[in-house]
Amino acid sequence: MTTVRPRSPAARTAGLLGGLAATGLAYASLVERRWYRLRHVTVPALRSDAAGPLRLLHLSDLHLLPGQEHKRAFVRSCLRRQPDVVVVTGDLLERADAVEPAVQLLGGAADGRPAVAVLGSHDFWGPVPKNPLDYLFAHDRRVRGNRLDTGRLVGGLAA
């Protein structure tokens, strides 16, 4: 007859932490990365005698990669809502080969409407592996990837 020894509290804690980490990783990689959201917010900023509401579409942190048709389809569905103004606030790109997909997706987004775009750090520098602990302990150290063709991105969006 074999006896089963109970696990130590340290082993149970390690198992629990490992399970939580695996669950978090699965959620982040399988659910969150494709969970795009369109939020509707009403801000009472116009005068009471304004002709009507101003519909603004704010796009941010797209981090586009070639082949992300699911993400481009979401952005196109947002643009079909016919906003009065399109505002894009940075981090359109994730790699150098995403310039053309970004320009194709957003270059005609304004479609005669006012539009403005502000670039983020990912629009200037390619990705590079970073130690997450640097955010806590070495936050003054800058690690940058290769310089991206920001001029081509800006030119394409402007055209």
Can you offer a commentary on this structure?
The chain is an alpha/beta fold. It is built from five helices and three strands; from the N terminus they run H-E-H-E-H-E-H-H. Helix 3 links the parallel strand 2 and strand 3. Helix 3 packs parallel to helix 5. The chain is elongated and about 80 Å long. 13% of the residues are buried.
The fraction of residues assigned to DSSP E strands is 5-15%
Mean pLDDT: 87
Shape summary: elongated
DSSP strand count: 3
Helix content: 25-40%
Largest sheet: 3 strands, parallel
Radius of gyration: 22 Å
Q: Alpha-carbon distance between the termini? A: 79 Å
* Widest β-sheet, arrangement of strands: 1-2-3
Helix and strand sequence? HEHEHEHH
Assembly state here?
Answer: single chain
Given as residue ranges, the uncertain stretches (5+ residues, pLDDT < 50) are none
- Counting helices, strands and paired strands, the structural category is alpha/beta
Number of helices: 5
